[in-house]
Amino acid sequence: MRSRWLVFCLVVYGVLTSVFVLVGLRESTVIGFTGMGRVLLSFSHALVFLLPLLGLGATAQIVNGAREDGTLELLFGHPLSRTGWFASVSTVRFVALLLPLVLLLPIVAIVGSTVFGQVIPWGFLGRVLIVSASLLYCSVAIGLAISTFVRNQAKALMLMLLVWAAQIALIDFGLIGLMLQWRMPPEAVFALAALNPVQDARL
Question: pLDDT tens digits, residue range 87-96?
């Protein structure tokens, strides 16, 4: 696989987990409690905001980029269906984003358990992986939709950033602000929350 997203995600996840483990170590020595649970909880909250950006960024310029550089014309000159190409691209990007997290989380849990001397919460880690995979799947799908319907790569990039910012903004406090400012009915607020993958993952 020539995609650099695998290495990039591994580095990002590794740096993120290292920061939280170091913070947990510092807090455990200063405050006097072990911070394994806090590390995993903080890491999972950070993933909720990071994964949509990675998923959108990895896919928002695939189709329009292939259309502009002539890759689509070259590929479809061979016996390759659009559905097959689209499915393969989607699967490769999804796996490239998820696989580093699947490999890294157990390692972090084992290292953290050794450092903090606590039992590894495998059930919690399993839920984190399931929610992360679902969030990545939604983000990859949204990014591919942007890439398909927006032909210009620069416009697709701007729309991708706007979609990510809207997902982050329309969480708890943003939804409460909308409800108070425009007197929105609770049903509409709950509908907006249900349509937001980030909010769904947080719940």
Answer: 888 999 999 8
